[in-house]
Design goal:
The chain is mainly alpha-helical and 165 residues long. It has 6 helices and no strands. Helix 2 runs parallel beside helix 4 and helix 3 runs antiparallel to helix 4. The longest helix has 28 residues. The radius of gyration is 23 Å and the shape is flat.
Length: 165
């Protein structure tokens, strides 16, 4: 009995120190990500089972994808350590995957026949690029030139500094 108690304590210590090293300690953001990853996997299994497409090799690929999510969060934490930015990149990557997992959970719910509110359905379509024209709402449509290069000096009014276009 005492041996199991010691083994249990060592296991907890190993997991805690690993979480601290790889993720900068456990946080609410990582907890939410873990819950969403598990829910997505379970709802994905249920949806695949309901449609008759449940296969073990697909399930193993799904697990590999989930491990990759946490590997990316770990890499972001290591980048934070190099840059000295606290948890900026780790949390940004975690929030990206939280949003991605949430969309997948909602899609799986739809495949299972769960009612999905129209506003959520529309948001999913827009995020997938299928909302009407596939463009972002409003007049926001940056071109590569606008986003990543300096303006051409010939296109700028030398008197006012405004664009001639």
């Amino acid at each position: 009995m005492e041996r199991w108690d010691t083994l249990w304590k060592w296991g907890i210590a190993l997991m805690s120190s690993s979480a601290t090293y790889f993720f900068g300690g456990w946080s609410g953001v990582l907890g939410v990500l873990l819950v969403f990853v598990i829910l997505d996997y379970l709802t994905g299994i249920a949806a695949a089972g309901m449609s008759g497409k449940l296969e073990s090799n697909v399930g193993m690929f799904g697990i590999a994808r989930k491990v990759f999510i946490f590997a990316m969060v770990s890499v972001a934490h290591l980048v934070d350590g190099v840059l000295g930015d606290g948890h900026l990149f780790r949390d940004a990557v975690a929030f990206f995957y939280i949003a991605n997992e949430l969309l997948s959970i909602i899609e799986n719910g739809g495949k299972l026949g769960a009612p999905i509110p129209p506003v959520i359905r529309q948001a999913i379509e827009v995020l997938k690029g299928k909302g009407g024209t596939g463009e972002l709402p409003g007049n926001f449509s940056p071109s590569a030139k606008d986003s990543f290069s300096q303006p051409d000096p010939d296109d700028i009014d030398s008197q006012t500094g405004d664009s001639k276009k």
